[in-house]
UniProtKB/TrEMBL annotation:
<dbReference type="InterPro" id="IPR051121">
    <property type="entry name" value="FAH"/>
</dbReference>
<keyword id="KW-0479">Metal-binding</keyword>
<feature type="domain" description="Fumarylacetoacetase-like C-terminal">
    <location>
        <begin position="75"/>
        <end position="280"/>
    </location>
</feature>
<dbReference type="InterPro" id="IPR011234">
    <property type="entry name" value="Fumarylacetoacetase-like_C"/>
</dbReference>
<comment type="similarity">
    <text>Belongs to the FAH family.</text>
</comment>
<dbReference type="GO" id="GO:0016787">
    <property type="term" value="F:hydrolase activity"/>
</dbReference>
<keyword id="KW-0378">Hydrolase</keyword>
<protein>
    <submittedName>
        <fullName>Fumarylacetoacetate hydrolase family protein</fullName>
    </submittedName>
</protein>
<dbReference type="InterPro" id="IPR036663">
    <property type="entry name" value="Fumarylacetoacetase_C_sf"/>
</dbReference>
<dbReference type="Pfam" id="PF01557">
    <property type="entry name" value="FAA_hydrolase"/>
</dbReference>
Amino acid sequence: MRIVHFDKDGVLGIAADGGSGWHGLAERENGFPGTLPDLITQGADLLRAGRDLLSMHAIDLDAVRILPPVPKPPKILCVGLNYDDHLAESGLKKPVYPEIFARFATSLIAHGEPIRMPRESTMLDYEAELAVVIGRGGRRIDRDKALDHVAGYSLFNDATIRDFQLRTPQWTMGKNFDGTGAFGPWLVTPDALPPGAHGLHIEGRLNGQVMQDSSIDKLIFSVPVLIEMISVAISLEPGDVIITGTPGGVGAARKPPVYMQAGDVFEVEIEGMGVLSNPIQRESHEEASP
């Protein structure tokens, strides 16, 4: 089941697709179950909600504005250096503990919205990633029960300002420029995918050219392992998002480096989940001004 969070003429809506097209409701219509972020926060049965939506009227996604599945997550926890092939191109040793850093909701954009290139840098890199949305919170979650805490999965482009990222050992600045965290287009419920999305093909394309080509089974720390290890220290909450890392092929590791430029389009595709597509746009003077 795919479930999308959208806006039409300033009114929020929700729609589901079980394989026969999108059907749903807007906030002011009878039977509206709540927005997707609200349902996730409430711990609702998303599969049941999605099935109920299938009997509602058709929704044309081209006629609405798609929003991130969770526009303002309580926490966005990202994992660095989590694919063997990306580790190899980085020339670093295999970690024994995941490299965790934070993103903030102010960096998030939706499918189709422009990733913004700031005026301070031309080193805007792409990172195709699997996103995991938490549906049931907890702390010290056992690995064998970790997937019970997942509301669903989505796609993410962890676009990074490389020179800012590497100015210090902490990656926060380079990972949090406004308009660089593309998230969506929708949430895929766990029943539609292998456990933990294991084995799915993941691909990143720049202007149609394949730059990243890998499999989620190459994760060094799998989805259940990440949930277990993160929750040792941090209580996970409904709506939290874990961004699981990017495979090899990033622009900074290429010779010569390849960075995204204004006018480019970057796509993230994960097998069975869909495509997240975003154009690249130079930040306007108004956006860049204080």
